[in-house]
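Shipment paperwork, digital attachment
Item: protein structure file
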Amino acid sequence: MSDKVFPSSKPAANGTATNATTTTPNNPPPATTNKSHLYNPTSRPPYRPQPHTRRHRSRSGRNICCCCCFWTILTILLLLLLAAIAGAALYILYRPHRPSFTITSLRIHRLNLTTSPDSSSSHLSTLFNLTIISKNPNSHISLDYEPFTVSALSDGNDVFLGNGTLPAFSLSKKNQTSFRNVVISGSNDLDVDAVNSLRSDLKKKKSENGSVMLKIEMDTKVKMKVGGLKTKKVGIRVTCDGIKGSIPKGKAPTVAVTAKSECKVDLRIKIWRWTF
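Attachment content:
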């Protein structure tokens, strides 16, 4: 039996003939590859860029955040401006003034400093009696004071001499009140530094003019009323210095000179400090 001859399944490109390939049952035709598809770039599918949706979303989100920040800052600035205008209007309308405190008299009944023979310990015993006047010069503001803590110190080295109290009270507009026989006493042991400071202060003042300088501090909290409005409680410290006194030699107390003493009022606030 003779072998059958089959022509090529596809003519050659560009009209050229190709050699016939002999196929037999035992020799199948080889697989053909389309080389023009592999090496011809024009036969590839065209590139179609996809829209960048994420970038547009991110840009829109940034725009929204910028707008929110802008309006938030603008609102805060407007509120601050309104608060400043309201504060200035209230200040012009009510004209607030600082409350005043005056120590009209101070008597020293006892001021004894004793030291052990071996100088290992020292003890201070004090007793003062004073009169305090408080005034409210404001015509539209009322003041409510909590109880006071009154302390006596040496004016120079700030050695603690004793303490006392004042009861709570209120002052209406253009009013004043006085406290008589306010007692300040102390009985405590002093360390070496406090003893040296107090002794140097006493010797210095006694050698100069025969007197000792004292300072009175009063700490409390105050609430202010303006019409129907009430403020929060604010810490206040009153410092009265420049008080001249002499150490009593017998049982009779000595009278201190308070005519030249000055009392300063300081509102003590944690975040900021405001003084009338």
